Description:
With about 350 residues, the protein is of the alpha/beta class. It is about 40% helix and about 15% strand.
Amino acid sequence: MSDTMEIEPKKPVTLREVAGHAGVSAATVSLVLNDKGDISEATRARVLEAVEALNYTPRSNRARTEVTNTIRFLKIARHGQTVNRDHNHFISDYIDGMSFEALRRDYALQVVSYEQESLHQLLSSLDGSEPRGIVVLGTELSREDIEMIIERAPLPTVLIDTYHPFLKANFVDMDNDQLVYDALSHLVSRGFRKIGYVGSYSEVMNFRLRQTAFRNAAAAFGLQSEDAQELSVKSTLDGAYEEALTQLGDRPLADAYFCANDIIAFGFVRALRELGHRVPEDVSVVGFDNLPTSSVFDPPLTSVDVPKARIGAMAIRLLDDLIATDERDQSPVKVLMTGELVVRDSVADFKPRR
């Protein structure tokens, strides 16, 4: 009698295996295969080589009878002052977290970008469409925009990178109060008592939340509070530089400044230097976002690191729960996630200015 051996069918190669082979994220592989996103030619070629080497067949091309569950991420730019190329890496981290969690829960993640388009038409286009739910990048959305989404979105919805305490919607955002407090705590520990704030008048809710958090933290530490030490500038690199240059010329200078994000900090430091102030010898500066450029900036920028991938993953978990319960009227969930301050060379110990 001869022995027979059953050979198990080979499991298909997964998107994550292709990502590991190419040394990129699963989200990057997905963007390459769907011909989307700002992906360099070198990275695109590396992904396609991995696809060929592993003989990967995209899920949409496989012979399958079941319908693939999809979740759509809406990357919406209303004015483009923060949702732009300077923050592509920031948003990519959100996508990485969403992609990882979506794959774990057997969803396919679609990324769709909208620039200055009618929000009403955008929401209407979702009626009867493929996604089971949507995650919305709320960075540049106004209160009125979010109210429209709450009222008219035809699918379970979670908003990220924004937070409104009095709106009944599902939010996942960074904990601005805690993170700003930690940044000021570091400056106070280095001896600073005269600390200024550089914010922005751009239509971004997180900027307003950080300004409020700064004032609350300053009061908690008993710091001097003077309106003259608060600047409000455009949130682009050149805009922040030009407007900080003008505003610094007609007001007293603080010993240290907290900036609402890293792009503003980069422009602010440039303005300080043009006016003859050294960083950190004369003025210390802290940013927010911990963009990759922060570590190679001159001087390397102390910055608040936001857990962007965790926020993205949490948004998918929350959306999956909404889809599973299939109850549109359930109470909204609001999640705030903390991070950590990355200390670099843009902050020195306080020394009285001569």
